[in-house]
Each structure stands twice: as C-alpha cells, then as structure tokens.
Write a structure and sequence with these properties.
Strand order of the largest sheet: 11-12-10-13-14-9-15
Structural class: alpha/beta
Shape: globular
CATH topology of the largest domain: Rossmann fold
Largest sheet: 7 strands, parallel
CATH superfamily of the largest domain: P-loop containing nucleotide triphosphate hydrolases
CATH architecture of the largest domain: 3-Layer(aba) Sandwich
Strand content: 15-25%
Helix content: 25-40%
CATH class of the largest domain: Alpha Beta
Distance between the termini: 43 Å
Oligomer: single chain
Bound molecules: adenosine-5'-diphosphate, zinc ion
Amino acid sequence: MIAEVIINTTARSLNKTFDYNIPKKLEDFIYIGTKVLVPFGRKKQLEEGYVINIKEKTEYDVKDIAELGDRLELEQIELAKWMAKRYFCNISDCIKLMQTPGTRTKQNKIQDKTINTIYLKKDKEQIEYEIETGNIKSEKQRKVLRFIKDNEGATIPEIEIFTDCSRAIVNTLIKNDYLELVEKKIERNPLINKNIPKTEKYELNKEQKIAYTKIEKAIDENRYEQFLIYGITGSGKTEIYLQLIEKVINNGKSAIMLVPEISLTPQMIERFISRFGKEKIAVLHSKLSIGERHDEWIRIKENKAKIIIGARSAIFAPAKDLGIILIDEEHDSSYKSESTPRYQAKEVASKIALKKHIPLVLGSATPDINTYYQATLEEKPKITLLKLTKRANKAHLPKIQIIDLKQELANGNHSMLSNELYKDIEENIKKKQQTILFLNRRGYSTFIMCRNCGYTVKCKNCNVSMTYHGYENKLKCHYCGAEQKVVKICPECGSDKIRYFGTGTQKLEQEIKKQFPNSTTIRMDIDTVTKKNSHEQILNKFKNENIDILIGTQMVVKGHHFPNVTLVGVIAADSSLNIDDYRANERTFQILTQVAGRAGREKLEGKVIIQTYNPDNFSIRTAQKQNYDEFYKIEVALRKQLKYPPFCDIIVMRFEGTNETEVKTISLQTYTKLKQELQNKCTIFKPMPAPIDKIQNRYRWRIITKGIMDDEINNIFNETLKQIYTLNLKNTKISIDVNPNNMI
Ligand code: ADP
Ligand code: ZN
Ligand code: ZN
C-alpha cells in the first residue's frame, strides 16, 4: 500500500503530498491522519509528516516510510475504530484526539505583555459544513481552518509552523470573517512560582473508608468495576479521589481524572499539587498553547507525569500503565462532545477501563439519571453505588426558601426582586457580605415584540428571535452573530407599541443599580466572558475586591469557593423548566443544587432564595429539601412512562444544507430506508424541520429515533449512512448524535 504524506515544514514549496511505500510491518498502524517519519531529499534526518491518503499504487519509484512519528498503541487504534463506529465518524477524527498535539518548536521567549491569538469567528458546525461541502475552495484555507478548529487561541507563528501556510492565508480568512484576531494579555501561570506547602491526607471517616476500601479492592485485584460515589458537596469525595490516586501511584501506575473544564481552577489544581507535588502532575485544559499541550503530552508519554487532570479529551492522554480513571461531577454535560467525533467521555472511559482491567470511579452530588439508574438496578447493577451522606468538614447546608412570584405579582410587586430577596440583599450589603444573583439564561433572553400585532424581530439567516443588547443598543443573533439596529416602529403594522420582553442579565444589573445605587456589581454572561476576558478573571475580581453582588448565568455555579458569599438568589427558577428538552427537570434540579452549594461554604451561615412561578414543581421542591433520592424517584418514573433515557436512547439524525429541496429529499429517502430496517425495533419519527429550521442559511431537518443503541441498531445506522453517502450529496451534511445535549 502507498501513503500520501504531507511533510511538516515551513518551506512553502513543499506544501504538497509525496508518495511513500508502507512497509508490511507498519501496515496495521498507518491510517489517514497518522504521523510518520520519512526520508526526504538528501537530508540525513528523517522528516515528519502526516498521512493524508492511502492508495493501492503510485506511478513513482518510492521510498519506505521509516517510522511512525507518534506511535499509537494498537489499543488506541482499536479504540479509534470502535469510536468511529459508535459515534458515526471517520477513524482519523478519533485518531487525532490521541496524537501528541503539534510538534514542539523552539518557542521564542515572549517578552511582550500581549500576544495575538486566532479564534474561529463562525461556529464549528458552520466551518465543518463549509469544509465538507467544498464551499471553501482553497486547500490551504481549509487546512488553516481545520487547525484552528482544534486549536483555538493559536498564535500566527504556530499556525505557520503547523499548517505550513503563510500568514497571508490567515489574513484572508480574517478578512472573510472566518477567523478573528484577539489580542490577549499573557497570563503567567499563577502556580509556576508559587510555593505550595505540602498537605497530609486526612484520616477518612467511616463512610469514606467504606467507599475507599471497595475501590481499593478492585485496584488490588486488577479488575474492571464501575463505581459511583454519590455524596453532597463537601462530603469528602475529592479526598477519596486523592487517596485512591496515591494508592495507584505507589503501585507505580498512573491515573486520569476528568473534571469539567470550568472547574479546572487554580484552587482545584493547587489541592492536587499540595498532595503530590508539581512534577508528577500534568494538567490538560483549553487555555494551554499547543506547545504547552505538547510538552504535557510528552511528560505523560515518558511516564514523568503520572497524574493527569483534564477536561473531556484528557481521557485520550497517553498514560503509561494506567491504574484508575476518575470522573468528577459525572453529570456534567461537557463530557459529551457536541462536535465530531460526538463521543461521550464516560462511555469511552468505561471502554478503556474494561480493556485495562482497572476501576472507573464516577462522582457527583446530583448524579446523572442514567448513572443512578444503572447503580440502583435491582438485579445486577452495572455500577456499584457508594454513598456519602455527611459533610466531611461539618459545614452547614444553607437554608433554602422558595418565593412564589405569582403571589408577589398579586401583591403589586412588579420588580424582578421579591420583597424577601430585596430585604436580604440590603442587609447583606450592610454586613459587607457578598451576594450572587443567578439568572438562567436559556429561553430568557430579551427580545423585542410588537404588542399590537405580535411581530418579533427575527434573524434572516437563522429563524430565531434576535436578542436585545442594551449596552450597545443593538439586536443580535446568538447563532450567527448578525446585528441589526433596534426598531422603534413596527415594520408590520406601523404601531409604536414595541416593547422588550424577557429578563436578561443586563436588565437585572440595571435594576439592581437603581434599587441599590451604592452597591458594587459585576456581571458574568456570554457578553462579559469573552475570548479576552476569562470567566476566571471575573470571578477573581468578584472575590478579591469584595464586590457586593455578582450577577450571572449558569457560568457562576461551578468552580470557585467564595468564603464571603452568604446569600444566593435565583431570579426565576422556571427558565430551565421550559426548555425543549427531556432533561429539563434534571437540569433544573442540578442547577439549583449547585447554586445552593455556593452559599455559606465556610464559617458563615448561608441562605438561598429561589423565586419561581411554579413553586409546586417537584424539581424545585426536592431541590429545596436537597433530596436527590426523592427527585430521582419521580423523574425516573416519568422517563419510564414517556420512554426517555435510561429506558431508551434518543438518536438524532441531522441533515443540513443550503439547498432546501436536497435536504428534504435526502431526509425522506433516509427515512424510508431506516423504516424498512428498523421496523419493529425502534420508534422512528417522520423527518421534520428542526426546531430552529435555519442557521446561517443552512436548512436543517432531522429524524428522531427512539430505541436502544445496541450493536444491531448501530450497524443499521452505519449501513444506512454509507448507502446515503453513495448518492453523491452535493451540499447536504449528515450527522448522527445519540442523546445530544442540545435538541435544537
Ligand atoms: P467534595 O469533593 O465531596 O466536595 P471534599 O473532599 O472537597 O468534598 O471535602 C470537603 C472538605 O472537607 C475539604 O475541605 C476537605 O479537606 C475536608 N475533608 C475531607 N475529608 C475529610 C476527613 N476525612 N476529615 C476531615 N476533613 C475532611
Ligand atoms: Zn406590529
Ligand atoms: Zn442568525
């Protein structure tokens, strides 16, 4: 077999493919996307390249590929193959996740305080679409876009080195609105020079000890077993993780621990460093430059770093002799990838742990309904349940109060704050204690509507209401970024009764400033958290400057500890109940529990006020009581009745393209094929336009299937996909997603 290899070099004249023979011994290891070393020209040293195509023959007289540059283990290749089938994508998409990111290049010491970094300006889906459908004609532009898609925040020199394209290409893409240049302050890693004192482990309490011992047994017996540590915040889950990791390290093995990206705060990492020291730990997160990511990867490969802490994709880190996998906050939706490959990291972790005969430990205060179901099956639970019922440091749970907003309205209070919440904020400001006001954004952004005829301003490309941004006094589309001036006169009926609807964070901030003119506030939402201004910086400011009130969306609920926060107000708990998703109750319960966990974590007593129009809703009631078990019982019964996960998988097949007729025809053809094959095995619904039926001028249709995604059903979908692709689709992209986070 012959491989087409692209040489990794900055020499522009070499930006084409070269054919190489694949020696027999390497045949099993070389796929499209594999990094290889090849002899090149008269150079003594081997050159690095990527295999971009494989074919049967060549017209040239070719040399052999000398070595695999990044020697993926056969196990990894097998995992990639499994993933490609399971998540309906190319093997190379999966291999990419397992390869060492980039190549270490001599990084010039950066003296400046700022650097120019490059980000995508359009969303990933859109870019994928334009690449796949040949909309972007230039191969170099495609290359740069593909690279940025995986490495947002790269610098121009990095792009030049890794893609072998010049900065002119980058500039063209910026000019054409695909990329944007963001000037960034260089944030020195705060942990680099900090002397972190060593801490000793605690003696585990009774419940912790039981949990620890069970997992320890699986480690000792080299046995796969999946555990769920279910315990409220502060019940000592992390302490158990730390001690398990210590045990595994002492056995000479390594450990992977996944946490949601947003929880990878310096405080969290500090806790690990204080126990194990810096040298043994590798941290993988999205803010690392490619060079830094590469270095961490190499430290892992060379077995210098044995403890790997990272977000979702860290599950693919090349850990040597892995001894345990831990997944904290296992209910978090970030463990499911929403772009190709659309994998669920928990599933991949379980596959790896099974193969390596090691335990997989999940932890949460509000387990995923699916996980808890598997852990409480009466016959042969697939997951071993370990409960922690007490707070390890004896801190108190906050008092939670529910306020009925209907009642407030009846009493003539039309403001966003109930009387109770108003009084408590006032008092908190006096006491110099801090308050967090939480507003769940989804479905609650501000839009404009004509009260006379009901006209709303919608984005022409995307068919969704445009959102009012008070600060700039503009309407913006949250899907494609289109902007438009605010209308004062209704274009439909000419009336001037145009009003703003919904409750945004900006509006809340204005109201707070009016009601508490002497207070200090800080806001955190998608407008204030930008590529320049991180989530981390805003939270640090809130804490360090003792700002009175933090106003924010779900972003505020994770990560940091705020010792001085004693009051948390949820402005409208209903917003997450009204989302078009079968997980609405689960999300509401999780969010409320997490928000409540922000109040009074240390010595000061905390209070939480939940405002709602549905005070009797069970997810709100059970969140008030902090009773997950009660919530679970009701929710799981509903799921069973309505046939939702865990009783069924929701398989969403999406068709997107700029040609509406083609999109529609293809989805109907697919439906006919699927229906024949799936007949009695699944419930399959007719193709329909998606709830948002147009995004950036791409028409969107979908087919929803309810069934259990076992091997048989998986094969049927893969086969159908293969057949449909033979139809030579010109501009329709198809994807399949199982239990996606977003149903839009
Ligand atoms: P979780 O991960 O469940 O939120 P942590 O492990 O962070 O809980 O524990 C909460 C607090 O209790 C931490 O400050 C931790 O140091 C402390 N802690 C944990 N286990 C013990 C123990 N066995 N004895 C005393 N303090 C403990
Ligand atoms: Zn009107
Ligand atoms: Zn739009």
